[in-house]
Amino acid sequence: MAAxxxxxxxxxxxxxxxxxxxxxxxxxxxxxxxxLQPLSSTWDRKLQMFSSRTLHxxxxxxxxxxxxxxxxxxxxxxxxxxxxxxxxxxxxVSQFDSICEVQSDKASVTITSRYxxxxxxxxxxxxxxxxxxxxxxxxxxxxxxxxxxxxxxxxTPAMAREEHTHQEIKGHKTQATPAVRxxxxxxxxxxxxxxxxxxxxxxxxxxxxxxxxxxxxxxxPPAPFQEIQTPPPAAPTAAAAxxxxxxxxxxxxxPPITKPAFxxxxxxxxxxxxxxxxVKTMTAALKIPHFGYCDEVDLSRLVSLRSxxxxxxxxxxxxxxxxxxxxxxxxxxxLHFPVLNASVDEGCQNITYKAxxxxxxxxxxxQGLLVPNVKNVQLLSVLEIxxxxxxxxxxxxxxxxxxxxxxGGTFTLSNIGSIGGTYTKPVILPPEVAIGALGKIQxxxxxxxxxxxxxxxxxxxxxxxxxxxxxxATMCRFSNLWRDYLENPATMVLDLK
Length: 497
Known about the structure:
- There is one protein chain.
- The protein is about 35% helix and about 20% strand.
- Strands 10, 13, 14, 15, 16, 17 and 18 form a seven-stranded mixed β-sheet that branches. It has a five-stranded antiparallel β-sheet with strand order 7-2-4-5-9, with no helix packed on it. Strands 1-8-6-3 form a four-stranded antiparallel β-sheet, with no helix packed on it.
- The chain is of the alpha+beta class and about 500 residues long.
- It is globular.
């Protein structure tokens, strides 16, 4: 019993001693704090802020540093060349401010900021190769965590491939909130086709809804030509027509001829941009067994028809050339010979017949040879094709053709006649399987059915086709049908839809 009592007393004594020491420590700390109040209180406040609000301070006051990555441009493009930086380290940027211009195999693209913040790091020098999915810059953002999370959703591959994210075609900035972009994407609308009514041209939700209303509620295939609005059918008075200038796009001028500078030294430079793309494309193209077919077309009736329609199209603000007729006739021919509007896989084991007639037009631009295409020609009228060609030619002359304009082609026509050519052997543009080259229109003597000589407007055409899936007879029949449409343009009316 005595041993138990002594043990209990020992435990009690140790507890009392521990409480006494704690009490003394608190008193000593309290006295030291009161004595060094100015320094200690300041330190304690900083320590408390650091310990309890470290995460909050990092996310809000200082702002997180976000790696701004290069989004997927599409068409299998995995690298681009940085052509120009619009910012430097330490610069403050806002949403939609231009960061840099990059050039892919397809087009020049201006990358704009997704965030408000400060540029902390540039990952590439000018003319360096940037990789898709890798960081372009580090931005110390001023956004809240919710905004950052919402923007992260925009960078997912499914949405980054859309044209209406934060990538823009050079000279055509589209400003819209993520919610508006999402609404446009869900309704298959390109922001580049919508006129923004907000501040500085910002696209609002109402603009998207109004754009849908103009389509009478139907979700149509993307139609780039809708930027050009046809005026009402009501005929203006003579005075109004004389007072109002026609909104005809400027004619595409050939690049100026500059005098070459003779330096007397060999110069070596790497192939970049579109020249590098041409190496890749033509190397793949010449693996295809080509065969050629040539013919001539009498365009005398088409020349007369165009002269009649030219003033009508100009009154609607559209410049009408012969190319819209060539393109529409090709589309009508492709309906009868779908194998020419197809593609094959690398092993040439499967063939895919394309539903859309996205007919490309080879253009000689200051950036090199580019082939934009008119989408869904099978659904367009000749005037609508002319509208789209006007847009593409204007952008091509300004060096502003975008990836959407240059990708997705299914068949190509090359107008070598625009620079004085007559014949050529065109090279197929993979993954397409056929291409045509159009020569200049010449006034030449020909014989009519009675044996009389008359003036004829003759154009030479040269076709190339993939001989693995297309035979000479098929190419010949297609060419004959295409020629018949152009030599008797009135017959095109029977098959127009």
